[in-house]
Amino acid sequence: MRQGCAGLGPMLAAGLLAAGLQGVGCSGLGSGDRGDGRRVRIEPADFSTGQTGGTPAAAVSADPMETGPSPTPDDGVVIRPAVPQARPAAVASAPEGLALIEAKVGDINGKPIYLSSFFEPIEARLKAEAERLRLSAWRREAAQVIAQRLDGLIADELLRAEALSALSPQQRQGLRAFLTNFRDDILTQNLGSAQLASRRGQSLDQALRDKEIETLVSLTLFQEVNKRVNVSWRDIRQRYERDFEQYNPPPTAVFRLIRVPSADETAVAEITARLENGEPFGVVATHPANTFFVEDGGLARRPFEGEFAEGDFFPAEDLNQKARSLSEGETTGPFTLGNFTCWLTLEGIEQESISLYDAQLRINRDLLVERRTEARTEYLKKLIDHARVSNRDEILLSLLRIAEERYGPKE
Fold first, then answer.
1. What is the pLDDT of residue 339?
2. From CA 103, how far away is CA 351, in angstroms rounded?
3. Of 7, 190, 206, 247, which cross-links 202 as Cys (Cβ 3.0–4.6 Å)?
4. Which residues are CB-contacts of 72 (< 8 A; sequence separation ≥ 6)?
């Protein structure tokens, strides 16, 4: 599904404004107006009389600004399931040897929801989940995936309608020019052939429709959400203080230990000689006789709090005392520890603190993402409440039934 358009914000909006959409703003939500005195409404109570088959290519006209729905009495936004006798679930029992190629499950603002275009972005995931999950678990996963896809389509249409209703005639002309240029670019890339462009991907009309939605949704989110969210220096400082331990974790002592059975006198003598000759401790620690993490060269990373001289680094107290006595770069050994002969070195102490100055950009980015997400969720909730969305669950159930027949586990 289209994941909203959070990442398109200021840059795309700026491009639109340059194309002639200066001054675009969405109407306030308190009065419920769309900017021209009309109200946005989503009511699937009235079922459309769409056909059960057909292709979605004709869903968008050649003129990108003529992609709106057929007017309703108050020119609202409508989501409708397909008529009961045309429900795709009922078509599943096709005669033997025949397969259902296309069907319509409902409409969003007069735009049909065709099965192929709806499931295309999520088809691979549904199939993959069917191979690893049992039916009951697959149903739960599929319900979440399909609901996200459907809700994304509804949200996009609400935001598109909100932005389109606020455009002045001059701004509509700017949007028309912007989409016409986009269409010309597609044709140029495909030698002027709309048929060639369709063979290489989606149809030209659908590409224009998607571009219109993307542009208007981005513009609405920029005007109503992103533009209104700010992060102050005080906010950044408070977040840094809240997550102080995250940016200032405890120091870590980096040790290397060689632990060889004392009975292996040959190995003890060889390791002693190599260390005395100045060979790096980490290299000597890979000796096969070493029984302490030989594959990592005897590496032991030990976080600690408080004073190093009071740190608790190893379970054995005798080894702890040896560790506490070391300075960075110092080695002790050989010494006996039970049935083993050991050598220990302190390679260093790591302290990975990040100052407020260095962390401010990251914190600012995180706060912007969090607040824009919250503001977008709240804004969409207001639009949906105002639009009186209903019968969404009826369409969702139809989609779930069809998905199970097409992609579900065969148990």
1. 92
2. 62
3. 206
4. 41, 78
pLDDT (tens digit per residue) in 82-105: 554 444 443 444 444 444 456 777
Query: Which residues fall within 8 angstroms of residue 365, CB to CB, at 6 or more apart?
Result: none
Using CA atoms, how far apart are residues 253 and 46, in angstroms rounded to an integer?
Answer: 70
67 burial (CB, 10 Å; 0-12 / 13-18 / 19+) is buried
Residue ranges and CATH numbers for the domains of the chain are 9-230+375-407 (no CATH), 249-350 (3.10.50.40)
Across 356-364, average pLDDT: 93
For 259-309, write each residue's pLDDT tens digit.
999 999 999 999 999 999 999 999 999 999 999 999 999 999 999 988 898
Say whether pLDDT at 392 is over 90.
Answer: no
- Cα–Cα distance for residue pair 175/156, rounded to 1 Å: 17
Q: What pLDDT score does 281 carry?
A: 94
